[in-house]
């Protein structure tokens, strides 16, 4: 070993090396394996440790990676928190929506007149005892409306009562009949003592059997001409100059045209089914048209211009001589006509002999 050392020294001197660091040798100093940390000089180990420490200190990558991981974790946490908040917000919104009571659109009544609505409400079972607005579907099936003396001014809304068969709205302030113009099932209509002038809207109501228009301001009855099923027509206390239209109503049983401006009764002459005829308070001067009305039970002719009762007396005499006896069931009211006393008393006595009840007052 000493010899080997000398050989190295000579080699160093030969090449002009001035410094040679000699490390402690060990039993494996000349082995092929590199020296372990224990075999390295202390200075070398210190230097190497210092270099590693510096290397670790100078390398920022691990710290940056740690910071990135922290940032990622923070972002992830923030996302989770945001998701939780959003979910909670949505849940609150859903809860609030569920808690809200739905606000239904305000339903408006189909009736412009409150008094008429009240009259109709009595026929609508579902709303009879509340104040909910009446709708078209509520009244689609009702068959009657009764509202007497209720200060009703408008029929608006009745057009929705498609199944209506009876109307009784007497003693109101109705003037316009157009809302009921298409109620083809109507059979009985009472509109007496209103403010009606025009009955044109009734012209197509051919199912009509009973029509009371008394106490209005009607001057034209012609719109009833198509009511071929009409049995009763009351048109007293209007402004009728004639009753020509009744000649087209062969099924009339009862006709009341009192307190008008009628002069001529000829339109009634063909009404063989007529049992009651009233024309009191007009200007009729002849009874000839009633001579053929052999089903009459009541004839009210007070306050006219009749001077001759012979047509009526002759009709009753003819009846008494036949198998058909209407006279015993007939009542005649003839007061207020310009009959002289003798004529009146003679006619009265003869009529009574046939069973007729005669009233002269």
Instruction: Assign the CATH architecture of the domain at 240-361.
Output: Alpha-Beta Horseshoe
Strand order of the biggest β-sheet: 1-2-3-4-5-6-7-8-9-10
* General form: rod-shaped
Number of helices: 7
State mean pLDDT (0 to 100 scale): 84
| Gyration radius over CA | 59 Å
Structural class: alpha/beta
Distance from first to last alpha carbon: 179 Å
Report the helical percentage. 25-40%
CATH superfamily annotation of the domain at 240-361? Ribonuclease Inhibitor
Main sheet characteristics:
10 strands, parallel
Q: Short description, anyone?
A:
The protein is an alpha/beta fold and 361 residues long. Helix content is 29%, strand content 8%. It has a ten-stranded parallel β-sheet.
Topology:
Elements: H1 2-14, H2 42-58, H3 61-99, H4 114-121, H5 136-139, E1 144-146, E2 166-168, E3 188-190, E4 210-212, E5 232-234, E6 254-256, E7 276-278, E8 298-300, H6 310-320, E9 331-333, H7 341-353, E10 357-359
Parallel strand pairs: 1-2, 2-3, 3-4, 4-5, 5-6, 6-7, 7-8, 8-9, 9-10
Describe what this molecule looks like in 3D:
There is one protein chain. This protein has 7 helices and 10 strands. The longest helix has 39 residues, at 61-99. It has a domain at 240-361: Ribonuclease Inhibitor (Leucine-rich repeat, LRR (right-handed beta-alpha superhelix)), CATH 3.80.10. 29% of the residues lie in helices and 8% in strands. β9, α7 (341-353) and β10 form a beta-alpha-beta unit. The protein has 361 residues and is an alpha/beta fold.
Could you list some keywords that capture this structure?
single chain, 361 residues, alpha/beta, Leucine-rich repeat, LRR (right-handed beta-alpha superhelix), ten-stranded parallel beta sheet, 7 helices
């Amino acid at each position: 070993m000493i010899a080997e050392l000398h050989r190295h020294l000579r080699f160093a001197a030969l090449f002009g090396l001035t410094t040679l660091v000699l490390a402690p040798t060990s039993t494996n100093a000349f082995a092929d394996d590199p020296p372990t940390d224990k075999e390295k000089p202390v200075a070398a180990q210190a230097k190497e440790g210092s270099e590693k420490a510096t290397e670790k200190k100078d390398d920022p990558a691990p710290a940056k990676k740690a910071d990135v991981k922290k940032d990622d974790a923070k972002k992830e946490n923030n996302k989770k928190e945001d998701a939780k908040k959003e979910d909670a917000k949505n849940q609150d919104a859903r809860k609030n929506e569920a808690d809200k009571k739905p606000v239904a659109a305000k339903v408006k009544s189909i009736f412009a007149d409150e008094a008429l609505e009240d009259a109709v409400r009595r026929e609508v079972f579902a709303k009879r005892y509340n104040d909910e607005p009446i709708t078209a579907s509520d009244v689609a099936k009702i068959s009657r409306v009764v509202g007497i003396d209720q200060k009703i001014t408008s029929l608006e809304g009745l057009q929705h009562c498609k199944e209506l068969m009876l109307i009784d709205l007497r003693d109101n302030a109705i003037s316009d009949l157009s809302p009921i113009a298409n109620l083809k099932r109507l059979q009985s209509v009472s509109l007496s003592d209103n403010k009606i002038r025009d009955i044109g809207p009734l012209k197509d109501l051919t199912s009509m059997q009973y029509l009371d228009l008394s106490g209005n301001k009607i001057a034209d009855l012609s719109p009833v001409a198509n009511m071929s099923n009409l049995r009763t027509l009351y048109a007293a206390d209007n402004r009728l100059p004639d009753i020509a239209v009744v000649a087209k109503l062969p099924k009339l049983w009862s006709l009341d045209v009192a307190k008008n401006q009628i002069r001529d009764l000829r339109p009634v002459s063909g009404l063989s089914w007529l049992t009651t005829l009233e024309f009191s308070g007009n200007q009729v001067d002849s009874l000839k048209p009633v001579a053929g009305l052999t089903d009459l039970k009541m004839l009210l002719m007070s306050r006219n211009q009749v001077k001759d009762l012979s047509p009526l007396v002759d009709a009753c005499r003819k009846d008494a001589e036949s198998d058909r006896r209407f006279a015993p069931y007939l009542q005649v009211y003839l007061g207020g006509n310009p009959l002289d006393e003798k004529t009146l008393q003679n006619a009265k006595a003869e009529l009574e002999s046939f069973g007729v009840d005669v009233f002269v007052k």
